[in-house]
Amino acid sequence: MTDNTSRSARSARVQVLQHRGKSFVTGLRWHPLGSVTGHMKEARQYGREHQLDIVAIRRTPAIIQAGFVARSDDVTKGMYSLAATLAGQLGDSWIAAWRTESDLDQYALVAVYQGGVISGCDMIGTGAEVRRRVAQQRSRGISFTHEYLPLEFEMGGQPLDIEELLQPSNLKREYRLRPLVFGLSKAELMQLVILGVIVAAGVIGWAQWQNHQAQIAKEAAFQAEQRRLEELARLQKESGVEQTPQALEHPWAKRPSVADFIEDCSNVIYQLPLSIQGWQFTSAICDGSQVLSSYKRSGNSTADKLIQATQGHFSDRPAFFDEGNTATLKFDLSIPAAGDEPLKEAIVMLANLSSWLHSFTQSPVLKEVPVVVPIQPAIPGQPAPPPPPPPQWKLFELHYATGITPLDSLSGAPGQGLRLREIKTEYKSGHLIWSVIGDLYAK
Q1: pTM of the model
Q2: Which residues, in sequence order, are bridge partners of residue 276?
Q3: Please, which residues bridge with residue 43 across strands?
Q4: Which residues, given as ranges, of the chain have pLDDT below 50?
Q5: Whole-angstrom distance between the N-terminal and C-terminal Cα of the chain?
Q6: I want to staple 253 with a disulfide (CB 3.0 to 4.6 A). Which of 74, 99, 247, 439 is the partner?
């Protein structure tokens, strides 16, 4: 936004940006519409139920979506939806954030995935709030085709040219907000007449639709079974042992063994230098999928020297934080699953593991935590499956900190039912302090 852009607060959620004499509304409540021919009726029904009377309608090959707002938020027809304006130009998969005022800590955020504006990602907030919302979307596993983020966020992507996107020549009528008139329009009345004619031939169409739905359900069930068989084959290949179908229901079967976790993590952590071109090692953390090591700048060391020194030795270029004084280096791991194994009584497994760690002068904390069994999604066209039965196992969280390396304290430990979640080390006063977090499954 240029200097002629300003914001008017309408509510805690809905806000309006002024740009070149045009008003752009953010904070709309986005809702998908299911009906192709009756989407406006569906939108009016939703608006009536939620006291919302202004709407922007988006139609794409993948989705029909409505963004709702109320006149009480000081929004009027003819204003433009900011999210719809950008989505109409940037495509079906992207996330964008930009500073709205050069002298304010105020950023706009819009995100679109699979053609639809993501709920809660049509907003104005501080830099910290918008950063958290971007990180939240990434943590959900969403991979955007394009990311337009400010350089000061240090989160990758590229800056957004908002001036180009909001120039008047790019504004279409479909981006505008319009009032919801509760009731039926002349066009909708005509649709009802046509619908009455269609109903006469609806019996045949309904039978065909039912057959089509049955075919979809059959195909979905087949695909689900294929995925189960592929997952079971992967477990058998990685563990080297034939697995029963029940292994897919046991979370410990899909996780690495303690020995493999420690070995792969240690092979990376132990080779990390304490200093790289003046950058001093501070900590490293391994979660089984990657090792993230942190270094702090000292003296006249520079980011360029760190990038050059680490090139080709890690999975990615360094990520810099703390105004460029801290860097994180990433090394990706691929550790095979351990496969299924029988469990013993909790009292026995807890005694065995704690006794082993006590013999190394460790003070482990083993705390029972609730077991949450995921609910399987319903097959299209079929009723929701019944709730899963209660699990036949218990779960205990393991945590301890030590000056002894995990390779020494856990090699040969009772590993039955034990899976590690995280190994972390910090360099303090010339020594490495280790902490271990894991999960113990027992009957």
Answers
A1: 0.49
A2: 279
A3: none
A4: 2-11, 183-185, 188-189
A5: 60
A6: 247
